[in-house]
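Data card: per-record layout.
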Amino acid sequence: METLSKTELAIMEYIWRLEKCFLNDLISILPKPKPAKTTLATLLKRMQNKNFVGYTTYGNSRQYYALISKEDYFAKTFKSIVSIHFQDSYKEFGLFFAENANLNLSELVELKSALESEIEKFKNSEAVFY
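The structure for this 130-residue chain is written out next.
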């Protein structure tokens, strides 16, 4: 899967939030210093070529929209990271994360609770098949 550059991802965040937008909508919402329209148009063209953004033409204007949801993009990106850096092992990623994320006690307890909840869901779904 292709990835978005840091700048493309920042623009994509606005497109996800707005759902549909014209170039001028993006210019108005982007923080200062605002990019030139030509720069933004070039970035949007790159994002189209990567199949992240589509558009509908209205006269001389294009209304842009996302071709991939934010959730799907980050799920695929995360899966790629685990595949490349942790040999497809989510366990290895989890261990690395737990050891290197510098979580405080409260965050560790919350993470433990979330994992225990997922384990229970898994156990309950497995029981259906027995």
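Known properties of this structure: The beta strands are 20-22, 53-58, 61-66. The longest strand covers residues 53-58.

See the next section for split statistics.
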